[in-house]
Design brief:
Blueprint: H1 2-40, E1 42-43, E2 51-52, H2 56-63, H3 65-97, H4 103-115, H5 118-128, H6 135-142, H7 154-182, H8 186-194, H9 199-227, H10 231-236, H11 248-258, H12 262-291
Helix pairs in contact: 1-12, 2-12, 3-4, 3-7, 3-9, 3-11, 4-7, 5-7, 7-9, 9-12, 11-12
Length: 292
């Protein structure tokens, strides 16, 4: 009886932990996603009841050049931001890892960039990127270089977003790479030195292969993060000039809350979800491959 009573108590304890987690996912993940899928096939504007409209919203997305451009902008920001932030972060991690003194201070200082919320970072950089009185153009002028229209030229506005992404994310990925570097067997480096390998060879044949799981994780996580760029871009460029930096999430927000076209916004949300899902599956496959 005591054994049975203990088994029942253990089961109650386990379910008391599991049930809240299940309810959380049902309420905040599965139910909203199911509603999105439902609204995809409806005309809905928050006021009137949803009316079934078939594939109209999906057809609209297929032919909507503005949505396609927003998707292109999102991919452009992601494709440039991800490799840059990873290269800068890995370089910073290698530099910090090899330091003899001041390692903790430098690591904390670099990580502090990640602690700055994207909204705050975008406000600060918007002031710095100002054409007339911005700090960056002031420095350029002092060096005898012409001012740059950071936020009024499509190409430079895209570059400004990428710069802020890299600045804001470097600290986070640096810490991840530092953790990966600390897990590499020191004997591999000692053996390489005995064999006469130089620094470039050690980095190429030991550091990079040993960091592959960390690099893959960071690459996928950064990709998903930048695909969902919204607040930083909204404040920094507001999607301009001429919608040249408008991301797909910004366009979804405008359709769903400004135009109140909930059905069409739901289509965009599902498209973004599917893209993210594919990237996550790729991560799982690559992680499993390198673990094996």
């Amino acid at each position: 009886m005591k054994s049975l009573s203990r088994t029942v108590k253990d089961r109650i304890f386990v379910w008391s932990i599991v049930i809240p987690a299940i309810l959380f996912f049902i309420i905040f993940v599965y139910y909203p996603f199911a509603k999105n899928v439902y609204y995809m096939f409806c005309d809905y504007n928050y006021i009137k009841a949803p009316v079934f409209s078939g594939l109209k919203n999906i057809q609209q997305f297929i032919t909507d050049s503005t949505a396609h451009r927003a998707l292109f902008n999102t991919f452009a920001i992601t494709i440039f931001s991800v490799p840059l932030v990873l290269v800068v972060s890995l370089g910073a991690a290698l530099a910090v890892f090899s330091m003899k003194r001041g390692k903790n201070f430098i690591r904390s200082a670099l990580f502090a960039t990640f602690l700055v919320p994207p909204v705050v970072a975008s406000v600060i950089f918007k002031l710095m990127f100002g054409t007339e009185s911005g700090l960056i153009n002031t420095v350029l002028n002092t060096l005898g270089l012409p001012s740059v229209g950071w936020l009024i030229s499509p190409g430079w506005a895209l570059a400004a977003i990428i710069i802020v992404h890299v600045w804001n994310g470097t600290g986070y990925y640096m810490v991840i790479f530092l953790a990966g570097l600390s897990n590499i067997n020191r004997q591999l480096y000692e053996a390489a030195r005995v064999d006469g390998a130089n620094g470039v060879q050690v980095f190429r044949y030991i550091t990079v292969p040993q960091l592959k799981p960390t690099i893959i994780f960071s690459m996928i996580y950064a990709t998903i993060t930048y695909l969902r760029s919204f607040a930083l871009v909204e404040i920094l460029t507001e999607g301009g000039p001429y919608r040249s930096t408008e991301t797909i999430i910004m366009y979804m927000f405008k359709q769903g809350f400004q135009s109140r076209n909930v059905g069409y916004a739901s289509v965009i949300a599902v498209v973004v979800f599917l893209i993210t899902l594919v990237i996550s599956l790729i991560q799982m496959k690559l992680t499993k491959y390198y673990d094996d």
